[in-house]
Amino acid sequence: MKVLEANISTFDSVFDTFRSESINNTRNFILFLADDDPSTNRSWCPDCVRAEPVILNKLQASSQNVLLLKVFVGDRPTWRNPLHPWRKDSIFKLTGVPTLILWEDGAVKARLEDYEAHIDHKIESLLSSA
């Protein structure tokens, strides 16, 4: 599994790389996560803390050629802003983190929202979807 990382300021250039590399992979995913809280060195988002290791383990265990773009949405005040760029984005339309997106043929094919992104069988379903 190859992993790229981006944040708000680096997203455009890293997303260009992701799109150009996506044609070389069986499955391409985008995982939107909350930033780490500098005072704890852990994500400020408990759902992200729970879901990220489950998602990473499932993707790493896959026999498929997987590309993952991990995107950090910012600190809590940045994410909570209703004008956050990925909340308003016509492609991503984020409502919560974590959000796991299956990217196929230059578009969002499927997604797992914050309340379901940690569920094993749902992640496996994204991995195996045709």
Question: What does this protein structure show overall?
Answer:
This protein is α/β, with parallel strands linked by helices and 130 residues long. It has five helices and seven strands; from the N terminus they run βαβββαβααββα. It has helices at 11-22, 46-61, 76-80, 85-88, 120-128, and strands at 2-6, 27-33, 36-37, 42-43, 66-72, 99-104, 107-112. The protein has a five-stranded mixed β-sheet with strand order 1-5-2-6-7, sandwiched between helices. The protein has a two-stranded antiparallel sheet with strand order 3-4. A hairpin with a 4-residue loop joins strand 3 (36-37) and strand 4. Helix 2 (46-61) crosses helix 5 (120-128). The mean pLDDT is 95.
